[in-house]
Amino acid sequence: MEIYQALRTFADTWGLLVLFLFFVLMIIWLFRPGARKLHDDASRQIFRNEDRPKPPEDAKRHDARDQTKDRSNG
Questions:
Q1: Cα separation of 61 and 38, whole Å?
Q2: In angstroms, rounded to a whole number, what is the distance separating the alpha carbons of residues 20 and 63?
Q3: Checking CA distances to 52, which of 5, 14, 29, 67 falls within 20 to 30 Å?
Q4: Residues whose CB falls within 8 Å of the CB of residue 29, separated by 6 or more in sequence, listed in order
Q5: How confident is the model over 22-51, as pLDDT tens digits?
Q6: Are 19 and 13 in contact, with CB atoms under 8 Å apart?
Q7: Considering Cα of 68, then 71, then 72, then 74, what sign does the dihedral take?
Q8: How many Å apart are CA 3 and CA 43, to the nearest integer?
Q9: Which residue has the higher pLDDT, 61 or 56?
Q10: Which residue has the higher pLDDT, 27 or 56?
Q11: Model-level pTM greater than 0.85?
């Protein structure tokens, strides 16, 4: 029981301090001056392609390949 009590005391004091410092650092990191642009971009991300879904990236590459093949054949 002595080990349990020692570990519990350690976790109660230092664990609380570590978690509190982590919380404060995360709040500071989230509200830093340069983060506004990133947060605004993330908040608008789902509305970027309201008219139609964005085509997959690999579809663009395949279309470009097909066009170059058509030009070379025709």
A1: 28
A2: 53
A3: 67
A4: 35
A5: 999 999 998 998 888 888 888 888 887 777
A6: no
A7: positive
A8: 48
A9: 56
A10: 27
A11: no
